[in-house]
Amino acid sequence: MLLHNLRIAWKSMQRNRTLSFLIVLGIALGIALSTTFAAARHAFARNPLPSKTKVLRYVRLDSWDPQKAYPGDGANTVPTQVTYRDMTEIMKSKIPARQTGTFKTMLYVFPDPKVSRPFKETIRVSHADFFPMFAAPFRYGAAWDARADASGEPVAVISKEMNEKLFGGADSVGKTVRLEDRDFRVVGVLDDWTPSLKIYDLTQNRGVGAPENIFISFAWFRPMNLRTFGNSDGWGPSPAQRGIEGVMVSEQTWIQMWVELADADAVAAYRSFLDAYALEQRRHGRFLRPLNNRVSSIPELMDDFRVVPREANTLLVVSLLFLAICSLNLVGLLLGKFLARAPEVGVRRALGASRLDIFVQHIIECEVIGIVGGLLGLALSAAGIAFLNAVMKTQGGRPGFFQLDAPMVGLSVLLALAAGFVAGAYPAWRTCQLPPALHLKVS
Amino acid sequence: MEFGPILRAMTRSKVRYGLIVLEIALTLAVVTNCVSLIRDAQKELGRESGFDDANILTVRSQPFDPAFQEKGYLANSVRRDLDVLGRLPGVKAVSNTRFLPWQGGGSSTETRPAGSKGPWLRNQIYNADEGTFAALGSPVVEGRGFTRAEVESEDARLATLSATARARGEDGTPKDKITQDVVISRAFARLAFGEGSPLGKRLEDSDGDQYQVVGVIDRFYNPYGWPIHEYALFYPSSSASYAGGSAYLVRTEAGALGGVRAAAEKALLDANGGRNVRVRTLLEIKDGFQATQKLVLGVLTGVIVLLLFVTSLGIIGLTSFSVAERTRQIGTRRALGAQRGDILRYFLLENWIVTSLGLSLGVFLAVALNAALVNQVRAHRMDGSYLAGGVLLLWAAGLLATWFPALKGAGVAPAIATRNV
Fold first, then answer.
1. Which of B64, B307, B318 sits opposite A108 (nearest CB)?
2. Residue in chain B lying closest to A37 (CA)
3. CB contact under 8 A, B306 and A322
4. Do A329 and B171 touch (CB under 8 A)?
5. Distance in Å, alpha carbon of A184 to nearest chain B alpha carbon
6. How confident is the model at residue B421 (pLDDT cuts 50, 70, 90)?
7. What is the ipTM of this complex?
8. Which residues contact B379 (CB under 8 A, 6 or more apart)?
9. Pairwise CA distance, residues B281 & B251, whole Å
């Protein structure tokens, strides 16, 4: 019976090819546009590290100028990063299971002259806990350990790409990579690591972009005079000390601070610890604003940093409205098409077809239109996604950032089926209400 | 006119006409709001920097040879680079500055008129040498720019300052305050000092250091993370370090950009190979900066075209159906003496009524959607003229879409009335 209905639907679509094509095209455009922009928005909005959502927390301390709001939206805005001295102090807490401060810098890499000219590379500086905290996968070796942080061993973790570039992809653990005037021993080589967002650092470009290719310990901040190449906001008189000593005591905020807290109790305990720390600092004349420290989960953080660009929301709303208009359009066209078929329906009714039969037959026809339109739409949105990725690439973003992944394909199919049903239900219902006798008389 | 009969005919298929009314209403709402978003973005994208964007190259030199760590070596290298770049054929002006326009960021600080207890004003802050304003193509229009001697003496002074810790007073700020000559943008001068000449006036920062205005550049726009795109302050100094490298602005004669670009990297590497050099045109940087917004504009424009297409399709469908349904009636009317023009007019009028109903509902929807967008994405309030334009456009699209099916209706022969369909 279903097969028979499908055949009728197919024949009906072929009867007026131009009209059918236009109907299908209309729905395909609606699906294509909404799928593309749902996928674009989804690329920003999806949680890049769901396995760690329960435990990872981003720490912000309100160390800002009591006289003036932190540049941003409201008076309650907290600095997006922490100062060096605050990081050092709060890392003495034993509450977090793991913790790391992190920032990015830029250093010259001096490869074997046979391999390439020296080149400048973005380097991420962090503590040892960084790798397990962000579930970085290792191909060879492992992360450095806390001892290396404490003793300042010259050790480095490099990405798969960097390993490819410097060592031809071989297991390079134990080999050295020269950064500026120092040799760092490779202790670990990462495997492919492509979280949808660089969640550990949302302070620039919304975290869009590939993870850095070289990681070294925070212990090298001072000996190598590392300075941040990310955002740095500060206030107050410039410190009496010059250079790095000044940075260490200034009110410059430039470090992203992460902790891993086992459960809700640990989160609560850590919050009280931070508040106590801030109150203690207040006795020394710092932290003069009302207590406003943050211990944010990944979703909260993505919200605060507005990871989803406003444009993505606008385009999604517009594309959904577009789909709604396409569906409305389809209702009108189908109504016309079906009612024009009244005599045929009359004959079928007179020959014993029930109303339900007629309804089902027409709904199936609508769903066929919806599915064909949906498939065409999916193909179009794959092209749209490819285009967005090409634009993203020229912007220096991560290749393949936008994806037509399973949830998005599912969404697209659902939208197509829904559009087919929404558009078809009323015309099909009207058709099955036609009295059998009326049209028999005329013909 | 046949208003009565048309309306009565329409009430007999309320849903069918209702649908198209709703579709037209939604189309008007979406199209006008898209146009409004597009116009807003275009206004932002079209803002002129005040610089000679089309004829400027940015050159970055990033040393890796440790010899550059020695201050004198680095300074000599910067002098030689400026010399090498300046001698390339077609080059008008060169400058060593940290300010590279259209990068979407840079350095900023807070200042306020000296002695005022008013709010701190955030402004961009950059170094300039004797060639910077010529290289930008934004000449100093009031007061003076900087001289070579001044840049050098300031370099020396800044070096001394950063070598020694400054003695602090009670309030934690340095005891001895510095006064620095600066050039500021016209917009910043207005913000800080109001109308009238700012020459000789002073700004101060939170250290109590002062900035004396010696010159003003007229137009300045550089996109920035904060809304301080027009507020800039330049102080004399060269800008280069081992870690940060050195950057140059090169302004060429019209038409010479490509040649200079091709020659610059090689010339600099020939002068000193212990570094990497990257040359880009300012327009590339600007295009890269604006790419996302331009993409959004393209998409929105596409949506408008597609919407008009889909809605026209709906109208064509509706009218075709109307015509098919009434073939016998049309035949009868024709047999009773109606002219083709009468039939055509009937359908055009019918459509005009439908469109107008849709448009009047659409005006409300458009305003509501705009209010939502203003709230959600901080769009601007829509200009009323877009609504008027949208109404005219959809009227025209409606009539055009009705025209062909209606012509078909008008073509129905009177004899059809006598036939059984």
1. B64
2. B299
3. yes
4. no
5. 17
6. very low
7. 0.77
8. A314, B33, B36, B37, B40, B370, B373
9. 10
Write out the H or E segment, with its range, that includes residue A125: strand A119-126
CB distance A26–B310 less than 8 Å?
yes
Question: What is the mean pLDDT, run by run of 10 residues, along chain A of 443 residues?
Answer: 79 76 85 90 89 94 86 76 96 96 94 89 96 96 94 94 94 94 95 88 83 95 90 81 85 95 95 96 91 94 88 85 86 80 81 86 87 92 90 74 87 88 86 72 51
Contact, B94 vs B248, CB < 8 A? Answer: yes
Give chain A's largest Cα–Cα span: 102
* pTM of the shown model: 0.80
Rg (CA), chain A: 30
Contact (CB, 8 A) for A334 and A366: yes
- Which among A315, A325, A426 is the nearest to B307, CB-wise? A325
Residues of B in Cβ contact (< 8 Å) with A19 = 317
pLDDT tens for each residue of B345-375: 888 888 899 999 999 999 999 999 888 888 8
Q: B19, A313: Cβ pair inside 8 Å?
A: no
* Counts for chain A of helices (H) and strands (E), in that order: 14, 10
Do residues B43 and B208 lie in contact, with contact meaning Cβ atoms separated by under 8 Å? no
> Which regions of A22-63 does DSSP assign to beta strands (E)?
56-60
B174: distance to nearest CA of chain A, Å? 8
Closest CA to B393 of B42, B34, B37, B46: B34
B306 contacts A33? CB cut-off 8 A: yes
How many angstroms separate the first and last alpha carbons of chain B?
29
Neighbours of B350 (CB within 10 A): 23
pLDDT of residue A73: 63
Q: Is B316 exposed, middle or buried (0-12, 13-18, 19+ CB in 10 A)?
A: buried
pLDDT at A432: 84
- Is A441 in CB contact (< 8 Å) with chain B? no
